[in-house]
Amino acid sequence: MSSPFADSKYITTIDNLRDILQKCTLCNKLTLNGSLIMPCDKLSTIKLPNNKQKKYFLIIHVPSRSESNNFLGHWLGCCINTQTKQCLLVDSANVVPSQTGTMHYISNFCNANRLTLLNFNLMFQDKSNVLCGQYQLYICSIFSKRSLRQTLNLKYMLQKYNLKKLAYFIIQQVERHFHIKF
Taking the complete model, does pTM exceed 0.90, yes or no? Predict the structure, then answer.
């Protein structure tokens, strides 16, 4: 039986994510009004501004290697704290840390912005679903209200649930936080 979350209605684009993030002032601010949502090969163009904002959330698109359609791929998130100079990489499928090309872009971004890279290091997405964009919206909503350390500690709660129940929970939380319906 296929996952109920394998339906194409759950696939998110950069424009979808920007539209959804606009529904929450804090989340929209963390992504600099959606300007921190981008393909991984554009990370080298990002220099975090030197202002009073202490937290940012970066949403990175990694194109699928098996698909010729560049829209398909996987979404990652980075919770950034400029005070502690830390960047927490959150990959819901936990596959990107083994991809040297993508990690090269992320490492270069961290080096250019003088950030220490931390890894969430937890697979909390079923490989048969296409919810990675929604999972990043969920992480952004958590990070908008909590510290980087508290966001990192979220993994202890997430690992207690089976992946199917977790998918329902995360969709419900994203719908509630952003006042949307999938």
Answer: yes
The angle that helices 14-21 and 132-145 make with each other, rounded to 10 degrees, is 30
Q: CB burial class (10 A; 0-12, 13-18, 19+) of residue 3?
A: middle
What is residue 66's DSSP assignment? Answer: S
User: Which pair of structure tokens corresponds to residue 95?
Assistant: 């596959």
Between CA 98 and CA 11 the distance in angstroms is: 23
The DSSP 8-state label assigned to residue 37 in this structure reads E
Strand order of the β-sheet with 37-39 is 37-39, 55-63, 73-81, 86-90, 116-119
pLDDT in tens, 165-181: 999 999 999 999 999 99
User: Which residue has 């963390």 as its token pair?
Assistant: 30
The per-residue pLDDT for 97 is 83
